[in-house]
Amino acid sequence: MTKTSTLFLSAIVLAVATHIASAYDPSPLQDFCVAIDDPKNMLFVNGRFCKNPELVKAEDFFFSGINIPGNTDNAVGSNVTAVLVDNLPGLNTLGISLARIDYAPYGQNPPHTHPRASEILFVAEGTLYVGFVSSNQDGNRLFTKVLNKGDVFVFPIGMIHFQFNIGKTPALAFAGLGSQNPGVITIANAVFGSDPPINPDVLAKAFMLEKNVVEFLQKRFGA
């Protein structure tokens, strides 16, 4: 191959690589978006439709009530008050959302993941034991920290993470998330409480449990 041919080929490869680097899919804003040809049956365009700018009001960017404590009288002892595009329309396309998390004494926000957002957590009251687990590729490493009032911790996007109130008094935290609709998958609920249930033989083998134990858990979470 001549020097001229080599330079010409290199230019083509560089042009193709530049095109690929500059072309990308938008981040998903919902769990799935099945393609459809008929616009009459279309619901979303990977998120929400936009309001006519001439009809936009200040109220579209306003949410009230994040100061109100959530009810933590439940099985896990916590309550999440989320401010998402669903209840604050002005968040549409901005890529951010907010959550207030209340914890009863020894309550927890159980292991879960946000498929579309990283999270930054600020402890306003109490003491929390928090952590996340890295992916299989990184050896499922556990990163944990005890947080006190005023401390901040970050959970990378997609990582399974948790918070546990290790104090004898209620705790309060606020979380910022990098998506208007970060989504949440609570691990135990998703695995043992899916609708319809996952075949218990699959879960028994995956978790190395007796089948009757899996069926017991499916009844607990399925209810």
From TrEMBL:
Disulfide bonds join 33-50. It comes from the Eukaryota. Pfam families: Cupin_1. SMART domains: Cupin_1 (SM00835). Residues 1-23 form the signal peptide. GO terms for cellular component: apoplast. Mn(2+) binds at residues 112, 114, 119, 161. Its main location: secreted. PROSITE patterns: GERMIN (PS00725). It is found in: Secreted, Extracellular space, Apoplast. GO terms for molecular function: manganese ion binding. Residues 64-215 form the Cupin type-1 domain. Keywords: Apoplast, Disulfide bond, Glycoprotein, Manganese, Metal-binding, Secreted, Signal. Oxalate binds at residues 109, 114, 119. May play a role in plant defense. Probably has no oxalate oxidase activity even if the active site is conserved. Belongs to the germin family. This is Germin-like protein.
